[in-house]
Amino acid sequence: MASLPATFRAFRIHDDAEGYRSGIDEVTIDDLSEGDVTIQVAWSGINFKDALAATGKGKILRRHPLTGGIDVAGIVVDSSSDQVKVGDRVLANGSGLSEVRDGGYSEYLRLSSDIVVPLPETLSMREAMGLGTAGFTAAMSLYRMEACGQKPGMGPIVVTGASGGVGTIAINLLTAAGYEAHAITGKVEEFDWLEHLGARQCISRHDLHWGKSRWKRRAGLAASTALAATCWLESAGRLTSGAISPVAGWQAGTA
Length: 255
Ligand SMILES: NC(=O)c1ccc[n+]([C@@H]2O[C@H](COP(=O)([O-])OP(=O)(O)OC[C@H]3O[C@@H](n4cnc5c(N)ncnc54)[C@H](OP(=O)(O)O)[C@@H]3O)[C@@H](O)[C@H]2O)c1
Hints:
There is one protein chain. This protein is α+β, with helices and mostly antiparallel strands. The chain has helices at 48-55, 125-147, 165-176, 191-197, 212-217, 219-236, 247-254; strands at residues 8-16, 19-27, 37-43, 66-67, 71-79, 89-93, 108-111, 117-118, 157-159, 181-185, 201-204, 244-245. The N and C termini lie far apart (54 Å). It binds NADP nicotinamide-adenine-dinucleotide phosphate. Residues 47-48, 133-134, 137, 161-167, 185-187, 205, 232, 240-241, 243 line the site of NADP nicotinamide-adenine-dinucleotide phosphate.
């Protein structure tokens, strides 16, 4: 076991008799969730869920107190796992961080080796957390789409919520992977930016009318959105509303 400082700082979220509050506390490693891998934290992203958790405006934490931070990148300083070695650069996204186990806003953190992902040589820890859980979500969605048979030749992919965290990375990623990405956004002022990211076509969502009955009628499109939801559900154990919807291609690919 590497020698850790007796105490270190963590951003703790409490909900007790004194009320809901968050801030920097001095903690010991034994105050934190258990795990067979201990990391020295380098970076953690800031996700919309982190703000909801820290302020209590969203019901994110399922037990208290916990350390905030939905994701983390750092260097392994102790490990009893065969899969993860001291000195490895690793990350963890989602997987209950800052929901049921302590998250990344801490100088040290214990994690279960089954949620730890090795960082590729070409990605710095800072870059990994800049892309963050939104980037991981977009990447996992495309990964699962391709595992289900999606190919660039099947047709364009429409990205809804295009100007958001998941949407912008999805457009960039799809374009880099050879797909024709079409952006649906509520922000016409972001058309140029979305084109810069790779969108071949930008559509204002205010010009579209998607009644509920239309979604019900078009089983293929509904399946597309369910796919994106399933991607995240299967990969990280939670549900997204689905930022990537492979319209024409997915219908063709799954008929
Ligand atoms: N970020 C993550 O780590 C993560 C992880 C898992 C799941 N998710 C889920 O993925 C979805 C997108 O997350 P995000 O992080 O990209 O959020 P975000 O940055 O807040 O972006 C959401 C986008 O949705 C669009 N939008 C807002 N109000 C809308 C409305 N009334 N009707 C249709 N579109 C609307 C907006 O884009 P336009 O103006 O361009 O349309 C907005 O930028 C969310 O459902 C989230 O829960 C996110």
